[in-house]
Amino acid sequence: MKTPGNFAAALLGLAFTAAVFAGDPQIIYTKSFPGSDPAYVEITIDPSGQVAYREAPDDDPETFQLDIPSTAQIFDLAEKLDHFSHPLESGLKVANMGAKTLRWQNGGKVTEAKFNYTLDPNAKALQDWFERISETERLLEAFRRAVKHDKLGVDNALLNIWSAWDHKRLAGAEQFLPLLDQVAKSDLFMHMDRERAAELAEQIRAAHPKA
Asked: Residue 154 in contact with residue 147, Cβ under 8 Å?
């Protein structure tokens, strides 16, 4: 998912590169599921909450900052899973749900576990975090596309974002604020959509005061 001209994303990408060379630990989640949408996902997160999201191995990443409590939960789950040094596959005969890999990378040390389906509750919880991140980035991209190319489609995009917010499925919700503010302040959009965007931005800022 490429976003040309995103200076902030470029800076965050450079920070990721610096983190790798500095030996900071990272959790890397990949999911390959040909025929699904998306067919591939790669998510990298470090202890500061910097996240990089890709839908192809050679994509420029979509980058954002995850809040500290959420980041702490993710790294706590990784610790409970011994940093993926033990098998997670259930071994049960179930349908193909995509080839998933959880990888712990800390300096020169790398441990990983691959699975299609797991019964481990901590692994399920961690996988759900990464599913939430993927869902969030796809909602953001759909919203960005609608704002730029499909003014009438903004209404549906906002409803989907609201639904995710209500169900606590948005990860790094602050990344929506620039677009929400743009819609709220522009008469290019329907009055109802401007109100929805303004209200959601207000709720996100109330939940994340530093946003």
From this structure: yes
